[in-house]
From TrEMBL:
PANTHER family: MAGNESIUM TRANSPORTER NIPA4, PTHR12570. The chain crosses the membrane at residues 47-69, 105-124, 131-150, 170-191, 198-216, 236-255, 267-287, 299-319. The lineage of its organism: Eukaryota, Metazoa, Chordata, Craniata, Vertebrata. Belongs to the NIPA family. Signal peptide: none annotated. It comes from Cricetulus griseus. It is found in: Membrane. GO terms for molecular function: magnesium ion transmembrane transporter activity. It is a multi-pass membrane protein. This is Magnesium transporter NIPA4. One of its GO terms (cellular component) is membrane. It comes from the Eukaryota. Keywords: Membrane, Transmembrane, Transmembrane helix.
Length: 378
């Protein structure tokens, strides 16, 4: 007889009675290494969130530093190092989605912009003005608030649970709406207004990016289950997610490059970050229902941290070309040294006799000048 989880079972021994509660069920398909799986589950529940956040920070560090290596990539060795840094950063980002909720990992991607700006200032000699430094501090503050208030436990731990979540009616309707809206934007709106409106290409990238994050999340769970010894190779979901991930990356990179070719980079990246993170967070709420167990305080804290990160990214990009530093700020104390007074303008009036003499000299012709004769013919 199969009993549901949480059931109480009485065990009678020769001398005493013991009450046991069912906390985990093992199907016949699963291996008998229940002790190893239980130990891994304890580690995941206790440290999985912090491992995911740490991998997200490592990903931002590697991706942000790769931008600097690309700029300095004048020789082949440095260019190879940039490629390796990008690859390692994407692998760390992949692992972060496997351990931490997407609501936390996706907004933390703004830290790669921050790290790139800081490294550019110190390694490449590029100027980072006062507003840029304040934007970096605001990004760090917003990220800290989000990590504190974000959900700590993962709602999906196996491939079977992931497949069940993706079959949910709410997520199916949400995914269909995203696909239909994306097709309308690609084939109807983008050919007409894509060259003039910056939001068209960015919305397409953001909508497609939500599918890529969902696929990465599912593949991360698949890899984790594979190392736990669970039978995931025969399940069709990993192959479907791999196909979705490949198609979404191709479409996303294509339209993002179009936006970067037409519009200003300092506007594309902040707007893309806002739309992409918003769509991913909404998709995560619909699919994984991560916010259903959060309190109102944690929800408001997460939203406040997200808005704070948006403001920091906006300040870092929008005002990066302005010449603003500490010297241009108003001073605290008034300047006690008075400015030197301008010298008074003295208008010298000539004497009356001098004026008369000057008039006479001006009216008297000089010897070198000849008299002018006018001839009138009648």
């Amino acid at each position: 007889m199969l009993l549901p989880l949480g059931s109480i079972v009485s065990l009678y021994c020769a001398s005493q009675e013991v009450l046991c509660q069912i906390v985990r069920g093992i199907s016949p398909e699963e291996p008998n290494n229940a002790t190893l799986i239980t130990w891994q589950e304890r580690v995941r529940k206790r440290y999985g969130f912090y491992i995911g956040v740490g991998l997200a920070f490592l990903s931002c560090l590697l991706i942000g530093s790769s931008v600097i290596l690309k700029k300095k990539g004048l020789i082949r060795l440095v260019a190879t190092g940039a490629t390796r840094a990008v690859s390692a950063g994407e692998v760390a980002n992949f692992g972060a989605y496997a351990f931490a909720p997407a609501t936390v990992v996706t907004p933390l991607g703004a830290l790669s912009v921050l790290i790139s700006a800081i490294f550019s200032s110190y390694c490449l000699g590029e100027s980072l003005n006062l507003l840029g430094k304040l934007g970096c501090i605001i990004c760090v503050a917003g990220s800290t608030v989000m990590v504190i208030h974000a959900p700590k436990e993962e709602k999906v731990t196996t491939v079977v649970e992931m497949a069940s979540k993706m079959k949910d009616t709410g997520f199916v309707v949400f995914a269909v709406l995203l696909v239909v809206s994306c097709l309308i934007l690609i084939f109807i709106v983008a050919p007409r207004y894509g060259q003039r409106n910056i939001l068209i290409y960015i919305i397409i990238c953001s909508v497609i990016g939500s599918f890529s994050v969902t696929a990465v999340k599912g593949l991360g769970v698949t890899i984790r289950n594979f190392f736990q010894g669970l039978p995931v190779v025969r399940h069709p979901l990993p192959y479907i997610l791999s196909l979705i991930l490949g198609l979404s990356i191709i479409i996303q990179v294509n339209f993002l490059n179009r936006a970067l070719d037409i519009f200003n980079t300092s506007l594309v990246f902040p707007i893309y970050y806002v739309f992409f993170t918003t769509v991913v967070v909404v998709s995560s709420i619909v699919l994984f229902k991560e916010w259903y167990t959060m309190s109102a305080v944690d929800i408001m804290g997460t939203l406040s941290g997200f808005v704070t990160i948006i403001l920091g990214v906006f300040m870092l990009h929008a005002f990066k070309d302005l010449d603003i530093n500490q010297i241009s700020l108003p001073h605290t104390h008034k300047n006690t040294t008075p400015a030197p007074a301008p010298e008074p303008t003295v208008i010298k009036l000539e004497d009356k006799n001098v004026l008369v003499d000057n008039i006479e000299l001006a009216s008297t012709p000089s010897p070198q000048q000849k008299p002018k004769v006018f001839m009138i013919d009648s």
